[in-house]
Amino acid sequence: MTRVLITGVAGFIGSHVARRFIHEGVKVFGVDDLSVGTRDNVPPEVDFLEADLRDPGIFEKIPADCCKILHLAGQSSGEISFDNPVADLEKNVGSTLRLLQFAQQHQVERFVYASSMSVYGKVPDKPIPENHPCEPLSCYGAGKLAAERYLKIFEKRVPWTSLRMFNVYGPGQDLRNLRQGMVSIYLAQALQTGKIEVKGSLDRFRDFIFIEDVVEGWFRASLRDAAVGRPINLGTGIRTSVRELVQGIEGLFPGISVFVQEGTPGDQFGIFADTSLLQKTLGLGKTTTLANGLRRFFEFAKKGFCPAPKSRVPTEKAEFRK
User: The domain spanning residue 93 has which CATH number?
Assistant: First the structure.
């Protein structure tokens, strides 16, 4: 590899992925509209373009010699997708289609796409493999699935891999955003108010994967031929309830209060990954434990935490007790 294009390079995951490629000696051209990410997140070695991928004109500014495209840009919250579904569609599906056309035109070697566990929707309480029927519950999930369908249509001309990421967390996540990222939301609330507001049942469950493991998945997916033409779950395969997550955070913040509220639209009750294909194609097996990941995230958060503007203090409808 001589140069790669990374979209969403100013975001949490995109900036981490960019650092990995730079560490490997690869030049990175990065694009981001800075609607969520920040300029400070972008590694100084990145050749950066501030632009919106919905604008067809910006593709003339992207170097034609980018051998791989890692597409992480887009709206990434199921809850927020209900605020403006049309904007969510344009930002996630329309931009992906334009980028696929660019990839086809310049004969890009690999197109790696940031998909999501949200494509599955309501699922049984068991590890979910990639061939499980997809019935998304949110506008966001529907858009991610639509983008995957476009990847399939272009596959004879653009080799692709879709990484269905589960709940990513870790240092660098935006603690000011209280509508995205269960771990970061709870951690930010604990730091700011000493209270955690849980939207939905404590019995819900997720698959929490640490950022370093996610970055490794992205790097390997850009290189390994076994990953081409596949959606791949990027998770740990470990079922963790919201209750267990909260108890883990309580271990870092003795004495905090936890309150349970109504859930958010389109929220999955529970999901965790079958990681058989991840291990087979990318060789990713052992991942960071939640206890270790939470501790590292907590140490990061303590150093530079900035409270969210107008953050909502939990109302005391119901208090969780062990």
Answer: 3.40.50.720
